[in-house]
Amino acid sequence: MPQADSMEAALAETEREVDAALRGATTAVRELKRALGAARTGHVRDLRKSLAAARDAAGGLADGTRGLVDGFDFDEHAYLSSGGYVKELLAEAEARGLSIVEDDDRLLCYPSLLRILPGDAAVEVDKARDRRLRPSVLVTALARAQERGPKFKAEAFLDSLRSAYELLVSSTDKRADAVVRLVDIWSALTMLPGQRSQYSKQEFARDLYLLDQSGVTHTTRSPRTLRWAASTGTKGSGTLVTVARNGQQQRYWGVSFTEEPQ
To answer: By 3-state DSSP, what share of the chain in percent is helix, strand and coil, each rounded to 5?
Structure first.
């Protein structure tokens, strides 16, 4: 098998060769079934003919299978580690009209977040490990996830956001309706050991976008209403960035919670 320059090409070539091997296996099974029937009825001439045909088909299958094993020498660990896989995945997505954006060690594809795991020969998609590495297959799965839309509980997330906000406001003697940076709220939400690795800034930014899109600004647990704060903060430190459904970057910087007049 010639050395392929992409994972898609390598897998497509192997797919064709395995399909050919399966046809050989089908021939062997068919001849063995004929031999079985001939043995049961005593058609000795047909029996010998079918056994010989099965032997030849099985021999070809064995040779072909050995060639498949020896020929598939694609180094997936090196390819995943080198960045080549990400480039191929981005190209496949672009060809399919799907937007994927790189952000540090993650890939953002609304509403999914991906992380390449070379050591496990897998891609982590929203915390679930997926070993289906073929780029065309993964892009199809991401496109379907985008069509289905996210499973997001806006009110529960807003309550958590408000609780962290109120904790920061009370601990810093700010006004009750002061603007607080969202990156500081994320730090409060993930202050316990190990939580930051379980809930990244990218995931937090994605959830902020989903909350923004939901239109939910208050819940039954509190009369206080969410206010998004952008101003010049979106150009400075602490800005959180995610990808909208249309592929455009969405930026978030701060929020406040105010009590609406009765």
So the answer is: 55, 15, 25
Radius of gyration of the chain (CA): 28
- Which pLDDT belongs to residue 193? 82
Cα–Cα dist 9/69, whole Å: 17
pLDDT for the residue 246: 87
Q: 122 or 223: whose pLDDT is higher?
A: 122
Burial class of residue 245 in the structure, from the number of CB atoms within 10 Å of its CB (0-12 exposed, 13-18 middle, 19+ buried): middle
> How many whole angstroms separate alpha carbon 162 and alpha carbon 151?
21
The gap from C-alpha 237 to its chain's centroid, in whole angstroms, comes to: 28
Phi-psi region of 194 (alpha: psi -120 to 50; beta: other; left: phi over 0): left
CA 175 from chain center: how many Å? 41
Q: Contact, 77 vs 119, CB < 8 A?
A: yes
Lowest mean pLDDT among 46-50, 83-87, 203-207, 241-245: 241-245
Cα separation, 182 vs 175, whole angstroms: 16
For residue 113, list its beta bridge partners: 108
CA dihedral 51, 54, 58, 60 (to 10 degrees): 120
Residue 221 has pLDDT above 50, yes or no: yes
What contacts 24+ positions apart, CB below 8 Å, involve 148-153? 149/111, 150/111, 150/210, 152/111, 152/207, 152/210, 152/211, 152/214
The more confidently predicted of residues 70 and 133 is: 133
Model confidence pLDDT, tens digit, residues 101-117? 998 889 999 999 999 99
Cβ–Cβ under 8 Å, residues 112 and 243: no
